[in-house]
Design a protein that fits this description.
heterotrimer, A alpha/beta, B alpha/beta, C alpha/beta, A: alpha/beta, Rossmann fold, Helicase, Ruva Protein, domain 3, Zinc Finger, Delta Prime, domain 3, 3 domains, five-stranded parallel β-sheet, 17 helices, 58% helix, B: alpha/beta, seven-stranded mixed β-sheet, 14 helices, 53% helix, globular
Chain lengths: 347, 350, 833
């Protein structure tokens, strides 16, 4: 992917094709919603121009990458940003070889002197930034190779690691960075942002669609915006946007209709094996993803108040077993059938 | 002329017989200026490929029908030269990277890079991009999927990907989030019967009139809502019999018959001799390229059909699930197939 | 001579002497308990305690014990009953030949009055077999007078011919036989006193016991696997029918190579008329494949030699890439050799990975040859003949793995023959024969030989190696745990695992653990697979099927260990496999199995072979590769997946192409069959589909039954048919249906090719091998245009000619996408796709 940093102005036809996620990324730190703590600290550093190595962590879609990019933009301005910032994410090669070559080489370079013009407008601190996005998918060997580089060139380079699970970053690296935790977005903020996007793109929609989109996305704003975009695409009828309904959102997201899940649970509770067999057969032939079924069954049952706690614990165990086997690559039909037949013993 | 499966394949989206909403959606996408990456999934024989090809035809016109096969060479990391096949037309490409086993990552990187770097020369083409169809996307290794994700981002100007798979569970979330998911469900038995009826009329198949709908319904049921199987079954029955009626025996597939016989004998009586018999049967099935998981599933279904007690059914299903996982994680299928049958026999004895 | 105390008699003369111990007392006085021990020590040698173990039946008449003393040794004699003997005080006595003396204890030593005095007699001569010092160590046959005297004194025979002339014949002079090389008496030498020879033989054997048997070549010992390679057709072990087939194939080359006429005038092995101008077999390269060590290379050599060829071997040890190999191959195939015999090219081990260059050389040969044949048939000599030579010598290629990727390009041009492992009885016979000739027969029991054959699974070479290196001094032990040979070990271990004896279980468990841990093989897979194959066949005590169920969990555990080792390099966990092995013992061992020797069936390997074959068949069907002629058409392939092929597509397609006829009984007559409209429609449809799917019908020879039968090519039966009964039914049906289908197919293809209908210039070229560039496309097309025009005019019937106007032939060359831009295609491709 061409780096977001290097995107210049686009032609109108291209702007249609850019993902809305990119288009509506916050362009400066003020735009970043609901991460007050992190933003406050970073704003202070803008003034002092003394940045530590940073480690951003938190659930996906909460604005980590956006924050860093916004920060970089505010620090360097559009002219310098290409030479001062290196961005590597999970799509790029980040094996140990690349760390040794590319990253190290970039880290070593001396900082070029900014022009007076740039100096006037932006802080332009005398160091470079290397952004390692999705750092938890780097192997521990590659991460180890990074440690020393971080220390040696810390005069001229600052590292910013972004990850979802901080436990996947090795301790030596984590200890060299100052950690910023990004919390999941609160609903009000997220909804407001989503509404803003929808209105700017003139998306014709039913009531309650945005709430549902957010619900499906589980607090991940990126996912929500992408859903919205896909829905819009699907409803394009020669440049005209038909109304997006709740149903079509569900279809795009691959969510199994509640009615189907209800049928499955009912057949299971009835303890009628014949009926269960045929129901499961029919459902599987519809092509629904078993992981999705599993997750929805979980939501339905665990949050069901009419079940006893010990029932719920046994249900959890069954769900766990099924999930484990599915992730090992077992056959979906058999596993779903097993799930429901075990549930029939509990319910 | 070719098999009926091929002959009566709908060549355009309007000609599809079922799932009209999918056809509408795809048509809308094709006519829009922004065609997204697609992930089309559903059970086998549901019509995914047919609809993709029809969509391509909508995008580019009838030139996509002229396909040819190329053999491309590439080099793996260990400097081994491998060859694989690419089906292509002027506007699209189709590959099956999982044929390469663990080298599929290299296939994806090299091939897609090559395709993407050549711009479309044909100015009459309506779209700037080429379509790359990737078959059996759920068999891709993790590395290959990571490489795919990277390529999707880099080259999305020149390439649009269409991924075909049976389920979405094995596709990593970043790819799923970059694609539009299209679910193609299996046609219902009534829909299958309708299509069989249409073909019969066109080919003037002789069916006893009064029993027509029942015969076709029966065949549709036997096919398990798999349209490909249903059409092949129809053609085979026509070749084997002169008239079709309720009396004509529906053709059983040999491998299914073998499994059925084995389970019938196990249901009757259990002994070490049966286990020995089972071993030879399993070896034979495996050597005929029947996948081990399919064998397990079919044995399980047959057993469930024959067993009366509900609690026993639950036990059998649980055993099937356990051994299914073992088949995925382990390497020697015969150990686990035999173990499954042994445990089932123990359970039945109690 | 009596020895005086304190004096040391000397032995002189440098001769070995014999020491004979004779007791002076009468036998009755000698009783076992009182026989003392005597200490003998030679100069600087080790003291040997020689105890005279007399039994009650000690009889002086019986030859007294003999001891050999070397010359110049001095003997220390003393009673070792006390340690004082070893002190230097003990006197030393020396002996001289033919002295006898009385030995008694030295007086200074405290005497054991019970010890009787012994007389020592020294005699020299009567050693059995002791050679004359002056004579050579072995008798030579030079002492044996030749059967016939020297030339001058040879008797003559006079004879008179019919025309009156007188002639005289001299008796032939037998050559002197030098037996020095083999060390054996040459038994084919008649006229020798056999008894004398035998006695000399025994002499020699006794003397030469310590000397190693000298092999044929004096430079060290030769491997039996090399020494006992079969030299003649009759020595070959196993695969007789295949060997005969190879002979037949080679014989077909005789006309081309030697100019000999064939027996059946120009017919190919499958009874078809041979289009080849030299009557060579249709497939000009022979490809032999099979497991290692069963005799593939040997067969190639032996049969070629018998047919009168010289062998040019190129194997994996030769430099097989680049230009040099091309020259080498061409030279061997086109030039004469010194011996005057033509060459056969034997290419061994062609399934190596890097052999693409070499394989390309071979395929180029075939290609040039086929073009030359085509030119020859059109009676056009294209310029320089030398550049397109005919392939005039047979080529035999040998490989182990038929499905190696390097062989893909070679296989379509080859006659593929499968070599199976020879039967056990045959191998055993051969091994016994070899052992007999090597004089090691006594070292191995029949059971051991059978075990060796079993373990090595048909690999004769490794059997011979095993026997050779275990026929040393100590002798072999197939089940011995101390041997390092892992092949035998796993077999023995598996057998041990199923037996149990009466000793306490803990002890047996410990013993087995040690046994298994000493197993030096790589991993325990072989043992576990062997146990798995065997456990159903042995006797064990069980209620229901509890034990098989239990062992399946352990097998899964083992499986996980293996996967772990591969995936995350955790090879340490493999050592836990010993537990799995021991679990087999725990569950399945039984007293009844003690000491029985089980034959471990190896179903796994056979099924793996079958699987490979079917997998490749399906792969060829779906993929282009170079078997494009055998694959499904592109439009169909696009719709199919590999999994669905074996599950539903191939079984049903097989049923479609083999339609069921009404009234099959009276099927012999084609016209009757076709008269029925329903049948006719079915046959036509089936032929259509066969053509579409690129399935042909050929007359194939079945090696097993040596008959010819019509068969589909490619034949999907192996993927589709289960159990023998179904296969037989299919075969029966085929004999009825296929002839009809074949004719219909022929008609159909002819119809397809004729230009009466729409000319299908479908330029869908499928992946091709490289074709040489034509000089000028325009010329090429011009030439072909004329030819085609003539063919057209010839083929068209009169009315058609009238009906159609002048035909013009339009050719539209579709440029494909990407790399098809500069692709040369020949005219034939367009027509014969």
């Amino acid at each position: 992917m061409s780096s977001i940093l290097t995107q210049t102005s686009e032609t109108p036809s291209e702007s249609q094709h850019t993902p809305w996620v990119e288009k509506y990324r916050p362009k400066n730190l003020d735009d970043v919603a609901s991460q007050d703590h992190a933003v406050a600290v970073l704003k202070k550093t803008l003034q002092s121009a003394n940045l530590p190595h940073m480690l951003f962590y938190g659930p996906p879609g909460t604005g980590k990458t956006s924050t860093v990019l916004a920060l970089a933009k505010e620090l360097y301005g559009p002219n310098l940003i290409k030479s001062r910032v290196l961005e590597l994410n999970a799509s790029d090669e980040r094996g140990i070889l690349i760390v040794r070559q590319k990253v190290k080489t970039f880290a070593r370079l001396t900082v070029s002197n900014p022009s007076a013009d740039d100096l006037a407008r932006y802080p332009c601190p005398p160091y470079k930034i290397i952004i390692l996005d999705e750092a938890d998918s780097m192997t521990s060997d590659a991460q180890s190779a990074l440690r020393r580089t971080m220390e040696t060139y810390s005069g001229v380079t600052r590292f910013c690691l972004i990850c979802n699970y901080i436990t996947r970053i090795i301790d030596p690296l984590a200890s060299r960075c100052s950690k910023f935790r990004f919390r999941p977005l609160d609903d009000a903020n997220a909804l407001a942002r989503l509404a803003h996007v929808a209105d700017t793109e003139r998306v014709n929609r039913e009531a309650g669609v945005l709430e549902q989109v957010l619900r499906i996305a589980n607090g991940d704003l990126r996912k929500a915006i992408t859903f919205l975009q896909s829905a819009t695409r699907l409803h394009l009828d020669g440049d005209e946007v038909a109304e997006i309904t709740n149903k079509s959102i569900l279809e795009i997201a691959g969510v199994v209709p509640d009615e189907v899940i209800g049928r499955l649970i009912a057949a299971s509770a009835a303890k009628d094996m014949e009926k269960l067999f045929t129901t499961v057969n029919d459902v599987m032939l519809e092509g629904w993803s078993s992981v999705q079924i599993l997750s929805q069954v979980h939501d339905l049952l665990i949050l069901d108040d009419s079940l006893q706690p010990d029932q719920k614990s046994r249900i959890s165990r069954v769900l766990f077993e099924t999930d484990k086997r599915l992730s090992a690559g077992a056959d979906e039909h058999v596993q779903v059938l097993n799930l429901l037949s075990q549930l029939s013993l509990i319910l | 002329m070719s098999l009926w499966v091929d002959k009566y394949r709908p060549k355009s989206l309007e000609a599809t017989d079922y799932h009209p909403e999918i056809a509408d959606r795809l048509k809308a996408l094709a006519s829009s200026s922004d065609f997204p990456h697609l992930l089309v999934y559903g059970p086998p024989g549901a019509g995914k490929k047919t609809r993709i090809l029809a969509t391509l035809q909508q995008l580019y016109g009838p030139a996509v029908e002229k396909m040819k096969i190329d053999v491309r060479q590439f080099q793996t990391a260990s400097n081994r030269k491998l060859e694989f096949n690419v089906v292509s037309s002027s506007y699209h490409l189709e590959i099956t990277p999982s044929d390469m086993g663990n080298n599929d990552r290299v296939v994806i990187q090299d091939l897609l890079k090559e395709v993407a770097q050549t711009e479309q020369v044909d100015f009459s083409g309506k779209h700037r991009f080429k379509v790359v169809i990737i078959n059996e996307a759920d068999s891709l290794t993790r590395d290959a999927q990571a490489a795919l994700r990277r390529t999707m981002e880099k080259y999305s100007g020149n390439i649009r990907l269409v991924l075909l798979s049976n389920t979405t569970s094995n596709i990593i979330p970043p790819i799923k989030s970059r694609c539009l998911l299209v679910r193609v469900a299996a046609p219902s038995e009534a829909e299958v019967a309708t299509i069989l009826d249409k073909v019969c009329k066109k080919e003037s198949v002789s069916v006893v009139e009064t029993e027509r709908s029942q015969v076709l319904q029966l065949m549709a049921a036997h096919s398990g809502r798999n349209l490909r199987k249903a059409l092949l079954l129809l053609e085979a029955m026509v070749m084997q019999n002169d008239h079709l009626s309720l009396k004509t025996p529906v053709i059983q597939l040999d491998w299914e018959g073998v499994i059925r016989d084995l389970t019938a004998s196990v249901l009757k009586e259990r002994s070490v001799a049966k286990l020995q018999l089972a071993r030879t049967v399993f070896y034979e099935l495996l050597s005929h390229c029947i996948p081990a998981k399919v064998i397990l599933k079919t044995v399980c279904w047959e057993l469930l059909r024959g067993v009366q007690r509900d609690s026993l059914k639950v036990e059998i299903i649980e055993l099937a699930s356990v051994f299914d996982e073992r088949l995925s994680l382990g390497q020697k299928a015969i150990f686990h197939l035999e173990g499954f049958l042994a445990k089932v026999m123990v359970a039945m004895e109690q | 001579m009596s020895i005086e105390e304190g004096k040391t008699p000397e032995i002189s003369g440098g001769k070995d002497i014999l020491l004979e111990l004779v007791p002076e007392m009468s036998p009755a006085e000698v009783n076992t308990n009182s026989l003392p021990d005597f200490l003998f020590r030679a100069n600087g040698g080790v003291s040997t305690l020689l105890s005279l173990e007399g039994d009650a039946a000690y009889d002086s008449a019986v030859a007294p014990p003999l001891f050999t003393l070397k010359a110049a040794d001095s003997l220390l004699l003393g009673s070792p009953a006390r340690d004082a003997v070893l002190s230097s005080d003990a006197p030393a006595f020396s002996f001289k030949a033919s002295d006898s003396f009385l030995l008694s204890k030295p007086v200074s030593e405290p005497t054991d009055t019970t010890a009787p005095p012994f007389t020592f007699k020294v005699s020299e001569s009567s050693l059995l077999g002791k050679p004359e010092p002056s004579s050579s160590s072995r008798p030579s046959l030079s002492n044996i007078p030749p059967a016939y005297s020297a030339t001058s004194s040879r008797p003559k025979v006079d004879a008179k011919l019919l025309n009156g002339r007188e002639v005289s014949f001299k008796r032939r002079c037998r050559k002197q036989i030098d037996e020095g090389i083999t060390g054996m008496v040459d038994e084919r030498h008649y006229g020798v006193n056999i008894n004398e020879l035998y006695s000399r033989l025994e002499l020699m054997n006794l003397v030469n016991e310590d000397r190693p048997v000298r092999a044929k070549k004096p430079t060290g010992s030769v491997l039996w696997a090399e020494k006992w390679r079969p030299n003649t057709f009759f020595d070959l072990v196993g695969n007789e029918k295949t060997n005969r087939y190879i002979l037949q194939w080679l014989k077909q080359w005789s006309r081309a190579v030697f100019g000999q006429p064939l027996e059946r005038s120009g017919k190919l092995a499958d009874n078809e008329v041979n289009p080849d101008p030299f009557q060579r077999p249709r497939k000009k390269i022979l490809l032999i494949h099979g497991p290692p060590g069963i005799g593939k290379t040997t067969v190639a050599h032996v049969l070629s030699k018998q047919m009168g060829y010289d062998i040019m071997e190129i194997n994996a040890s030769d430099e097989r890439s680049g230009v040099r190999i091309k020259d080498k191959v061409h030279n061997s195939l086109t030039s004469m050799t010194f011996s005057g015999k033509p060459n056969v090219l034997v290419a061994d081990e062609v399934d190596g990975a890097a052999e693409n260059g070499f394989i390309r050389v071979l395929t180029d040969l075939i290609y040039h040859d086929s073009r030359a044949v085509a030119n020859y048939q059109r009676e056009k000599s294209r310029g320089d003949r030398k550049k397109q030579p005919f392939l005039m010598r047979p080529i035999i290629t040998i490989c182990n793995d038929l499905y190696a990727p390097a062989l893909e390009k070679l296989k379509p041009h080859c006659e593929i023959l499968s070599f199976k492992k020879p039967g056990e009885r045959l191998i055993r016979e051969r091994l016994t024969e070899v052992l007999r000739l090597e004089r090691k027969l006594g070292l191995f029991t029949k059971k051991e030989v059978a075990d060796v054959v079993n373990v090595n699974g048909g690999d004769i070479r490794s059997c011979l190696n095993y026997l050779q290196f275990n026929s040393g001094d100590k002798g072999p032990s197939v089940s011995q745990t101390s041997t390092k040979d892992t092949q035998v070990n796993w077999y023995a271990i598996v057998n041990r695992l199923f037996s149990r004896n009466n000793r306490p279980a803990v002890e047996q468990f410990g013993e087995l653990t040690r046994l298994i841990e000493n197993y030096s093989g790589n991993n325990y897979d072989k043992i576990i697979n062997g146990c798995f194959s065997l456990y159903q066949l042995v006797y064990y005590h069980d209620e229901g099927l509890r034990k098989p169920a239990e062992i399946s969990d352990w097998l899964y555990f083992n499986d996980l260990l293996g996967s772990n080792a591969v995936v995350s390099d955790g090879f340490d966990s493999l050592s836990y496999s010993t537990v799995v092995v021991l679990k087999f013992w725990d569950l399945f061992s039984d007293l009844n199995n003690y000491n029985s020797n089980f034959r471990i069936p190896n179903l796994d390997y056979e099924h793996f072979q079958a699987f490979q074959h079917n997998y490749t068949l399906i792969g060829d069907c779906l993929n282009s590769s170079l078997h494009h002629a055998l694959a499904f058409p592109v439009s169909l392939r696009v719709l199919l997946q590999r999994q669905s092929m074996s599950l539903e597509v191939l079984p049903l397609v097989n049923k479609i192409i083999l339609p069921e006829f009404q009234k099959q009984a009276s099927s012999a007559n084609r016209s009757i069959l076709m008269a029925n409209k329903g049948n006719k429609a079915k046959v036509e449809r089936a032929a259509e589909i066969l053509h579409e799917l690129n399935i042909e019908i050929h007359n194939k020879r079945n090696i097993e039954t040596s008959t010819f039968a019509l068969e589909f090519e490619p034949c999907y039966d192996s993927v589709v048919a289960f159990t023998d009964i179904l296969e037989k039914q299919l075969a029966q049906k085929k004999t009825v249906v296929l002839p009809v289908l074949a004719e219909e197919l022929l008609k159909f293809t002819k119809k397809r090719r004729s230009p009466a209908g729409a000319v299908e210039t479908d330029a869908t070229t499928k992946g091709e091998t490289k074709r040489p560039k034509h000089t000028n496309s325009m010329d090429f097309f011009k030439n072909r245009y004329d030819e085609l025009n003539n063919t057209l005019n010839r083929d068209m019937s009169e009315d058609r000619k009238r009906a159609s106007a002048q035909h013009r032939i339009w050719v539209k060359y579709h440029e494909g996408f990407s790399n098809a831009v500069r692709k040369n295609i020949t005219w034939n491709d367009l027509w014969e796709n």
